[in-house]
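Example S7 (C-alpha cells).
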C-alpha cells in the first residue's frame, strides 16, 4: 500500500494504530521540511526573483507608476485645499464683510459725492453746524477690519488760523479717542441763549458795560474774538445788511440760528459760517436736489444774477441744507456725536426753521478793538462775551 492510499485511510479514520503512527510521523517530517524551506529556500528565491525583476526594470516601472499616482492624488488634494481656502476668503471679504459692514457707519464710502469720502462731508457739515469758530480742512479714512476704520482730519481755528491734525479710530460704531479730539466743546459763548432768563440777573445787567470798558483799555489794534448777542433777532436780510455795513472792519465767523421760541430752554446751539473763504471747498458737490446749498459757494453761484447775490436766500438755503443733510446721516450723527438725542434735535430744528424762518440771535465776530467798539456802540447789542485776544491781527496785507 503506497503512502497516498494510507493517507486516505487516515483521513477516513479506517487506519490501524500502526498506520496512524506512521502517517503522523511522516506529517511531522513534512512540517519540518516546510519550515526549513520557508526560512531558507523561499527567501532566497524571492530575493533572486526581486533581483531579476530589478534587472528587467519591473520594479522601476512599478515605482514610477506609484509616484505618478501619488503625485496626481497630491495635486488634486492641494488644488482642492487651495480652492476651499480661496472660497472661504472670497466669502469673507466679498460676501460676509460687506454685509457686516452695512450694520456699521462706514466713513470710507463715497455715496454723498463722487470723489470725496462720506467722512469729509459728514465732518464738514457737523463742524459748521455745531462748532462756532472752527472749520474742517480735509478728512480721510481707511478700513482696518469689520466695521473698523482709521480716520484722519484737520480742523482749523478761524481766529488764530491754527490747524489741528487729528487721528482717531472708529470700531463698530464706537469712536475711540477723546470727544474734544473730534469736536471742540470748550467755548462758553451765548450764555443768554443757553440759559434763557439769566440775562436779567444783576450780573448780566452790567456785563455789557464791563466788557466795553475792558476793550477800551486794550490797544486799539488788538485783535479780538467775541460772541455778540443781539437785543432782538435779525432776519437773514438784516444780517446781510449788517455784514455789508462792516465788511472791511468786522469779520463774521459764525451765525447762531434761533431753533426754539424765545425764552424756551435750548440744549444745543446751531449755526453756519457766512463767509465762503472760511470754509473748505470741493468741486465734488453733494446731491443738489436734496441739499442745494450744502456748500455756500455752490448756492452763491446758482443765485448769481449780474454779479449780485440774494444773500437772504443763500444763507437760508445753506442752513436748511446743512440740517437736511444731518437728518439723512443718522449713522454718522450717532457715531461722531455719540449723542442719541441729537438726531431728534436736528429734525425738530429743521421743522422749526421751515415754519419760522432762519433768524439769528447772535454772531461770533473777529475784529480790532477800535472797530469792535464802534460795532457795539452803534448796533443793538445785548451781551458781549470775549473769546480770545491777540496783540494784533495775524496777517496784515
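Recovered sequence:
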Amino acid at each position: 500500500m503506497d503512502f497516498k492510499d494510507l493517507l486516505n485511510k487516515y483521513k477516513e479514520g479506517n487506519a490501524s494504530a500502526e498506520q496512524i503512527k506512521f502517517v503522523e510521523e511522516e506529517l511531522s517530517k513534512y512540517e519540518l521540511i516546510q519550515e526549513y524551506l520557508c526560512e531558507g529556500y523561499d527567501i532566497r528565491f524571492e530575493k533572486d526573483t526581486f533581483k531579476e525583476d530589478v534587472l528587467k526594470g519591473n520594479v522601476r516601472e512599478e515605482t514610477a507608476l506609484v509616484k505618478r499616482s501619488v503625485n496626481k492624488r497630491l495635486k488634486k488634494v492641494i488644488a482642492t485645499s487651495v480652492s476651499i481656502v480661496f472660497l472661504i476668503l472670497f466669502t469673507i471679504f466679498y460676501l460676509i464683510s460687506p454685509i457686516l459692514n452695512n450694520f456699521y457707519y462706514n466713513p470710507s464710502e463715497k455715496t454723498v459725492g463722487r470723489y470725496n469720502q462720506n467722512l469729509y462731508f459728514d465732518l464738514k457739515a457737523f463742524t459748521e453746524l455745531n462748532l462756532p469758530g472752527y472749520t474742517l480742512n480735509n478728512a480721510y479714512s481707511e478700513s482696518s477690519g469689520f466695521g473698523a476704520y482709521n480716520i484722519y482730519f484737520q480742523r482749523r481755528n478761524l481766529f488764530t488760523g491754527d490747524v489741528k491734525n487729528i487721528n482717531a479710530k472708529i470700531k463698530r460704531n464706537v469712536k475711540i479717542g477723546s470727544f474734544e479730539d473730534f469736536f471742540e466743546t470748550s467755548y462758553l459763548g451765548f450764555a443768554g441763549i443757553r440759559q434763557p432768563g439769566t440775562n436779567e440777573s444783576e450780573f448780566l445787567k452790567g456785563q455789557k458795560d464791563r466788557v466795553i470798558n475792558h476793550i477800551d483799555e486794550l490797544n486799539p489794534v488788538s485783535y479780538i474774538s467775541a460772541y455778540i448777542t443781539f437785543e432782538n433777532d435779525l432776519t437773514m436780510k438784516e444780517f446781510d445788511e449788517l455784514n455789508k455795513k462792516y465788511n472791511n472792519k468786522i469779520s463774521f465767523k459764525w451765525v447762531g440760528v434761533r431753533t426754539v421760541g424765545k425764552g424756551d430752554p435750548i440744549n444745543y446751539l446751531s449755526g453756519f459760517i457766512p463767509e465762503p473763504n472760511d470754509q473748505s471747498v470741493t468741486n465734488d458737490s453733494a446731491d443738489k436736489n436734496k441739499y442745494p446749498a450744502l456748500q455756500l459757494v455752490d448756492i452763491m453761484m446758482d443765485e448769481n444774477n449780474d454779479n449780485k447775490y440774494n444773500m437772504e436766500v443763500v444763507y437760508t438755503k445753506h442752513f436748511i441744507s446743512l440740517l437736511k443733510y444731518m437728518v439723512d446721516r443718522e449713522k454718522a450723527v450717532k457715531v461722531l456725536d455719540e449723542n442719541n438725542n441729537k438726531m431728534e434735535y436736528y429734525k425738530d430744528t429743521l421743522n422749526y426753521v421751515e415754519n419760522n424762518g432762519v433768524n439769528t440771535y447772535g454772531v461770533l465776530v473777529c475784529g480790532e478793538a477800535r472797530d469792535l467798539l464802534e460795532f457795539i456802540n452803534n448796533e443793538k447789542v445785548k451781551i458781549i462775551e470775549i473769546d480770545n485776544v491777540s496783540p494784533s491781527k495775524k496777517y496784515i496785507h
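Notes on this example. The first strand starts at residue 134 and ends at 145.
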